[in-house]
């Protein structure tokens, strides 16, 4: 049995306010073409189809289009809801859509009812475990409100169903969770409950393959437990990610052979750091002039018009971070220590020095601060007299 494992499409999401609809369309085109070129027996989508519970119309249209294309191509598709999706909305008309070979699994109560596909070696049971929010599903599973408890109970149901099936039935589980050993990025929404978000990979014991979603980096937790990652980068923390899908061959005895297939890259990402004059002059940075850029400026004093100057060389700069170099050798005192026994004007000057990493205000800025405080004092005095 050959299938494509993907997840975390996040249809409708932007990248620092830049629309990604065109890039998402290109990925879905690539997905359909890849499924056909590699003669995949199924496509798996392990949650976060959409970026939010009520997606924009353009995102829904992308989803509708890819479902029609997969159904027309005769490629069975199994997908689950993730923590970004509205399970109820995603699951609307799932019974009707299933007749076209598109299997939406969004109801936790149905986690032990698999989609059964058959190849020349026998049955493969695909179990879809939608994202299980502990506080909402603990009554369904009769457990405590914790990720490990509810996911463990769901897997117990899966194993019980599998035990009733014909000997030799192979099994694949789709789940949307943070599994211990996985490497997160800044893009995933926090799913911590009671200080704990990660669950052990051993929860999936008994399944021949666990197709995971939620973490955006493609990674192998174990031979049989893998994240496909998101097909596109959704934060600069993913700059070093290689965006791929897993092409998995499941052998007659449950053997796993997995290959990473690259996804289209709409534009590379780059993180650059240094003083602004260095960034504008360094010839080694020429390769980033067509990339989406996050620039961290280390100038001791914030330069004038930094975004305009950077975009003159790096026109796709989307994020600007200030991390001024510290001046002097001694470790700075805490802010509370620096403002103790200081008057308002001195506190304001100290604040400027603090946020700049040691570079205090110049004479013009000092004059502006004095004028501002003078105006406040005059206004306060007038109000007191009037009152």
From TrEMBL:
Role description: SbcCD cleaves DNA hairpin structures. These structures can inhibit DNA replication and are intermediates in certain DNA recombination reactions. The complex acts as a 3'->5' double strand exonuclease that can open hairpins. It also has a 5' single-strand endonuclease activity.
Pfam families the UniProt entry points to: Metallophos, SbcD_C
InterPro entries with a match to the protein in the record: Calcineurin-like_PHP, DNA_Repair-Maintenance_Comp, Metallo-depent_PP-like, Mre11_N, SbcD, SbcD_C
Similarity remark: Belongs to the SbcD family.
Keyword Protein transport: no
GN (gene name): sbcD
Domain Calcineurin-like phosphoesterase: 1-95
Keywords tagged on the record: DNA recombination, DNA replication, Endonuclease, Exonuclease, Hydrolase, Nuclease
Subunit structure: Heterodimer of SbcC and SbcD.
The keyword Hydrolase is assigned to this record: yes
All residue ranges annotated as the Nuclease SbcCD subunit D C-terminal domain in the record: 266-354
NCBIfam families: sbcd
Protein name: Nuclease SbcCD subunit D
GO molecular function, one term: exonuclease activity
């Amino acid at each position: 049995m050959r299938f494509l494992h993907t997840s975390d499409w996040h249809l409708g999401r932007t990248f620092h306010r830049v629309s990604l609809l065109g890039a998402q369309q290109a990925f879905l085109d690539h997905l359909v073409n890849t499924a056909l070129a590699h003669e995949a027996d199924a496509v798996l989508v392990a949650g976060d189809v959409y970026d939010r519970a009520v997606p924009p119309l353009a995102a829904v249209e992308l989803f509708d289009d890819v479902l029609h294309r997969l159904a027309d191509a005769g490629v069975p598709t199994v997908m689950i809801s993730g923590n970004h999706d509205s399970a109820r909305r995603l699951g609307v008309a799932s019974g009707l859509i299933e007749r076209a070979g598109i299997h939406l699994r969004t109801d936790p109560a149905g986690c032990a009812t698999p989609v059964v596909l058959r190849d020349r070696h026998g049955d493969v049971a695909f179990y879809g475990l939608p994202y299980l929010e502990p506080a909402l599903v603990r009554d369904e599973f009769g457990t405590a409100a914790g990720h490990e408890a509810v996911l463990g109970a769901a897997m117990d149901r899966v194993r019980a169903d599998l035990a009733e099936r014909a000997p030799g039935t192979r099994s694949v589980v789709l789940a949307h969770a943070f599994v211990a050993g996985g490497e997160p990025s800044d893009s995933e929404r926090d799913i911590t409950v009671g200080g704990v978000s990660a669950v052990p990979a051993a929860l999936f014991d008994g399944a021949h393959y666990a197709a995971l979603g939620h973490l955006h980096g493609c990674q192998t937790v174990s031979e049989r437990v893998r994240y496909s990652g998101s097909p596109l980068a959704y934060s600069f923390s993913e700059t070093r990610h290689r965006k791929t899908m897993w092409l998995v061959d499941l052998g007659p005895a449950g053997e796993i052979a997995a290959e990473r297939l690259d996804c289209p890259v709409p534009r590379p990402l780059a993180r650059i750091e240094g003083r602004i004059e260095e960034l504008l002059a360094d010839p080694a940075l020429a390769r980033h002039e067509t990339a989406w850029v996050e620039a961290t400026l280390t100038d001791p004093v914030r330069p004038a018009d930094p975004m305009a100057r950077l975009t003159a060389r790096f026109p796709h700069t989307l994020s600007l971070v200030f991390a001024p170099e510290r001046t002097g050798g001694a470790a700075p005192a805490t802010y509370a220590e620096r403002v103790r026994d200081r008057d308002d004007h001195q506190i304001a000057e100290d604040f400027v020095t603090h946020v700049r990493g040691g570079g205090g205000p110049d004479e013009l800025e000092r004059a502006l601060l004095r004028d501002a405080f003078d105006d406040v004092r005059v206004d306060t005095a007038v109000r007191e007299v009037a009152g």
